[in-house]
């Protein structure tokens, strides 16, 4: 066992920090909770891309750097620590690029990977539907072959980042007769295609967090089928393992952690035993969660898809985010209810935003209950009946 | 970064697991709990011969030249087996401390005997009324009398003192600020022991020092400035307890999952009920996180890195994780788990005792708070 980082890794972390601090100094943005998924900032994404920090682990052949998963974890950990607006490239970098890399044709790889790496292709995830949440295999969106094309009809919902997505990674039923897991395929759909339309959905914090995305006779060329036809369900499980794997599950609201600790110190609240105790407990939970997530990266380092490991770290971490937000609210007392922009609002409204917003973390990318099912059956081998 | 054990450590673990499965049955554990000494001299010698006692000591004293991290692996297995006896006292509390702060002459004199299993050591730190591991709670005192010191006072909850050959006594050497550590002959005049009856059946003692003479040569480390050494001892002990607890918790998780697969109600294994599955998933998360935080702290100690915060994180986390794990383990086992016919109680009692030892979660949360600059 060895819990140290190599000198190069430490150097890389410093480099990322310096870059982010300079971004903040230059007034490009300020640290914000949930900025990894809500911070739309093409300029930032371009500057990150210029440094070669998108697609860091991908082969050089496709524009990547061939670096290690630990390096990417260091990079994303720092982005989250500083609350950097990375939403434009996050999904492409985290999972869609990886899916194309694992399952896509050579042509697809050549078309998309270099563009993701340059920060020029933004993705949204078209999995959920009005009738389809946890039970993803029940999805109803259809794709029917027609010559060189598939024609897609249906509705996706809860599509994060959809308002600025240029492409959607869409799962649709290609064989209605087959058992439900075996008749689904994955497509990359250009958001500008005729027949694609979106309606904004506002979340509990008042943010436009998602869109409903409608597909009305959308024609998609067959070359945009990802992987094998009808194998989409197995591919999405693989992708979800990666979606759950990262530090954003623990550090999505990290700027609030920094801010509330600072607030407690400045207002002498940190001398009150109850508050000291709560903040220290958060620190303990944070450090423990971080280790669970580094374990996931090490699994990937071995060339395995993290499965129950990322289920564990994600289920754990989203509880931490909620706990942090709740403690921050309690510490701020009645001021906590003031919304961003109000007179007297503390910490730029981050606590309230996070308190409300964090209720969704334990739902997205697999609810905590689904993740525990995975842990119980795949890690522990408990029977299903 | 690597979270897997080395090949050598895997081998150590396997040897230890096999050996303890053979030698440390629950029947044996029960006998030891009921016995007066609480250990088997024969097993002790065997462990010495296996090189376990000397594992983490330098070869020049007869040790195995391995690290504290390697010792952590062994402690985990001991926790898994509920091994009774003075290994922890002798090695983690006694030997490691002598190695850390003793003079070369003291090491030469004491460590080889310790490593050969000839002498048993323990630490006499805590006192009646003690709650926290801070310097101000040390009131037993050593006063100098020319060449010698004389120790008076009472120490409480001292593990294995009744069978020890030497006690590392933490005493006040100056009214306000001075703390010293003395190596006292446990069999010398002026000492009185009573063995307490404890939850875990381990042997914690009251030790009364009535004008016990200790030669100046037996001062360990720096006189009057011993508290920082004591803190290091406490850190090592806290991490050592975490290692034992990780072994304990891992075993309890396995026992519980096995039970959930076997036990049938309503014509199906109880482990197929989702509530039970989620309980087990929660247990697994607590066990894995306990393991990583423990080994992180053990690794840092092993590397000689400053690790006040990491030790505190580990002990606070593991202690509370173990409460959750046991609440669920008992719930899943049903009534059989609260009988003495089932093995679970051995683990429950030991985990709670380990949680109380060398600082509980509140104590370490305060340490973390200070480390955060609060
Ligand atoms: C912030 C946020 C962002 C999102 N972004 C996206 C996105 O970009 N793209 C996308 O496709 N989707 C997205 N989603 C949707 C997300 O994937 C779904 O919310 C999730 O799959 C759960 O589905 P549901 O909300 O319909 O809840 P349901 O599946 O209806 O679940 C409701 C409750 O029932 C429980 N439940 C369901 N099945 C089981 C079971 N087998 N065992 C035990 N309990 C069960 C759940 O755990 C939950 O508590 C997002 C959601 C949120 C909150």
Question: Can I get a quick summary?
Answer:
With 385 residues, chain A is of the alpha+beta class. Chain A has helices spanning 7-25, 35-38, 42-50, 69-81, 87-103, 106-117, 232-243, 248-251, 254-266, 273-301, 308-332, 350-357, 368-379, and strands at residues 123-126, 142-146, 149-160, 167-173, 184-190, 196-202, 208-221, 225-226.
Describe the structure.
The complex is a heterodimer of chains A (385) and B (374). Chain A has 385 residues and is α+β, with helices and mostly antiparallel strands. Chain A is 46% helix and 15% strand. Chain A has three domains: 7-121, Butyryl-Coa Dehydrogenase, subunit A, domain 1 (Orthogonal Bundle); 124-231, Butyryl-CoA Dehydrogenase, subunit A, domain 2 (Beta Barrel); 244-379, Butyryl-CoA Dehydrogenase, subunit A, domain 3 (Up-down Bundle), CATH 1.20.140. Chain A has a four-stranded mixed β-sheet with strand order 1-4-5-8. In chain A, strands 2-3-7-6 form a four-stranded antiparallel β-sheet, with no helix packed on it. In chain A, α1 (7-25) runs parallel beside α4 (69-81), α9 (254-266) packs parallel to α11 and α10 runs antiparallel to α11. The mean pLDDT of chain A is 97. By secondary structure, chain B is of the alpha+beta class. Chain B has three domains: 7-119, Acyl-CoA dehydrogenase/oxidase, N-terminal domain (Butyryl-Coa Dehydrogenase, subunit A, domain 1, Orthogonal Bundle), CATH 1.10.540.10; 122-225, Butyryl-CoA Dehydrogenase, subunit A, domain 2 (Beta Barrel), CATH 2.40.110.10; 228-371, Butyryl-CoA Dehydrogenase, subunit A, domain 3 (Up-down Bundle). In chain B, 51% of the residues lie in helices and 16% in strands. Chain B has helices at residues 7-23, 26-34, 41-49, 68-81, 87-101, 104-115, 227-262, 274-303, 308-333, 344-356, 361-371, and strands spanning 121-124, 141-145, 148-159, 166-172, 179-185, 191-195, 204-215, 219-220, 264-265, 268-269. A four-stranded mixed β-sheet of chain B has the order 1-4-5-8, with helices on one face. A four-stranded antiparallel β-sheet of chain B has the order 2-3-7-6, with no helix packed on it. In chain B, strands 9-10 form a two-stranded antiparallel ribbon. In chain B, β6 (191-195) and β7 (204-215) form a beta hairpin. The two termini of chain B are 30 Å apart. Classes of the chains: A alpha+beta (385), B alpha+beta (374). The interface between A and B is large, with 44 and 48 residues. Bound molecules: flavin-adenine dinucleotide (FAD).
């Amino acid at each position: 066992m060895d819990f140290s980082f190599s000198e190069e890794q430490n150097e890389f972390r410093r480099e990322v920090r310096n870059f982010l601090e300079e971004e903040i100094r230059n007034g490009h943005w300020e640290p914000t909770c949930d900025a990894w998924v809500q911070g739309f900032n093409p300029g930032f994404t371009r500057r990150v891309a210029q440094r070669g920090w998108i697609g860091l682990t991908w082969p050089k052949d496709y524009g990547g750097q061939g670096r290690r998963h630990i390096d990417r974890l260091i990079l994303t950990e720092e982005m989250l620590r500083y609350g950097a607006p990375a939403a434009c490239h996050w999904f492409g970098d985290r999972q869609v690029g990886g899916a194309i890399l694992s399952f896509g044709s050579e042509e697809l790889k050549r078309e998309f990977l270099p563009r993701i790496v340059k920060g020029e292709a933004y993705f949204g995830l078209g999995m959920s539907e009005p009738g389809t949440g946890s039970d993803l295999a029940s999805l109803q969106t259809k794709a029917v072959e027609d010559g060189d094309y598939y024609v897609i009809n249906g509705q996706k919902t809860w599509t994060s980042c959809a308002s600025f997505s240029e492409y959607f990674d869409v799962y649709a039923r290609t064989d209605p007769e087959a058992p439900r897991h075996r008749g689904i395929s994955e497509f990359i759909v250009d958001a500008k295609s005729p027949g694609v339309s979106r309606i904004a959905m506002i979340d509990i914090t008042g943010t436009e967090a998602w869109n409903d995305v409608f597909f009305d006779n959308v024609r998609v060329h067959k070359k945009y089928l990802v992987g094998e036809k009808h194998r989409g369900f197995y591919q999405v499980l693989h992708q979800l393992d990666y979606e759950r794997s990262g530090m954003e599950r623990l550090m999505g609201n990290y700027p609030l952690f920094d801010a509330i600790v600072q607030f407690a110190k400045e207002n002498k609240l940190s001398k009150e035993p109850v508050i000291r105790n709560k903040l220290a407990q958060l620190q303990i939970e944070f450090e423990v969660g971080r280790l669970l997530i580094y374990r996931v990266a090490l699994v990937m380092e071995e060339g395995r898809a993290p499965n129950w490991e990322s289920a564990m770290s994600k289920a754990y971490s989203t509880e931490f985010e909620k706990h942090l937000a709740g403690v921050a609210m309690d510490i701020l007392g009645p001021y906590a209810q003031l919304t961003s922009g109000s007179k007297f609002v503390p910490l730029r409204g981050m606590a309230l935003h996070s308190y409300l917003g964090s209720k969704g973390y334990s739902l997205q990318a697999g609810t905590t209950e689904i993740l525990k099912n995975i842990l119980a059956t795949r890690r522990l081998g408990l029977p299903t009946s | 970064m690597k979270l897997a054990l080395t090949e050598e450590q895997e081998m150590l673990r396997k040897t230890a697991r096999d050996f303890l499965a053979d030698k440390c049955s629950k029947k044996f554990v029960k006998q030891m709990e009921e016995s007066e000494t609480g250990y088997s001299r024969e097993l002790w010698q065997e462990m010495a011969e296996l090189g376990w006692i000397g594992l983490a000591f330098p070869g020049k004293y007869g040790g195995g030249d391995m690290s504290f991290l390697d010792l952590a692996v062994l402690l985990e297995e001991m926790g898994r087996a509920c091994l009774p006896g003075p290994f922890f006292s002798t090695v983690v509390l006694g030997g490691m401390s002598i190695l850390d702060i003793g003079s070369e002459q003291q090491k030469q004199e004491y460590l080889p005997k310790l490593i050969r299993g000839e002498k048993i050591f323990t630490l006499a730190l805590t006192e009646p009324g003690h709650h926290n591991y801070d310097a101000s709670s040390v009131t037993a005192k050593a006063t100098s009398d020319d060449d010698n010191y004389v120790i008076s006072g009472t120490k409480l909850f001292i593990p294995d003192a009744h069978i020890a050959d030497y006690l590392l006594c933490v005493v006040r050497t100056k009214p306000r600020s001075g703390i010293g550590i003395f190596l006292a002959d446990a069999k010398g005049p002026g000492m009185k022991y009573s063995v307490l009856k404890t939850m875990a059946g381990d042997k914690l003692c009251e030790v009364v020092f009535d004008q016990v003479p200790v030669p100046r040569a037996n001062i360990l480390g720096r006189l009057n400035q011993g508290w920082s050494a004591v803190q290091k001892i406490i850190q090592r002990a806290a991490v050592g307890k975490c290692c034992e607890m990780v072994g304990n918790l891992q075993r309890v998780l396995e026992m519980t999952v096995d039970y959930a697969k076997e036990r049938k109600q309503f014509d199906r294994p109880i482990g197929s009920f989702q509530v039970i599955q989620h309980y087990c998933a929660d247990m697994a998360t607590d066990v894995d996180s306990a393991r990583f935080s423990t080994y992180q702290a053990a690794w840092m100690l092993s590397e000689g890195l400053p690790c006040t915060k990491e030790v505190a994180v580990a002990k606070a986390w593991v202690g509370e994780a173990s409460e959750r794990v046991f609440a669920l383990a008992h719930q899943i086992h049903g009534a059989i788990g609260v009988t003495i016919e089932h093995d679970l109680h051995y683990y429950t009692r030991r985990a709670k005792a380990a949680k109380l030892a060398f600082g509980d979660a509140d104590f370490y949360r305060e340490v973390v708070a200070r480390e955060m600059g609060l």
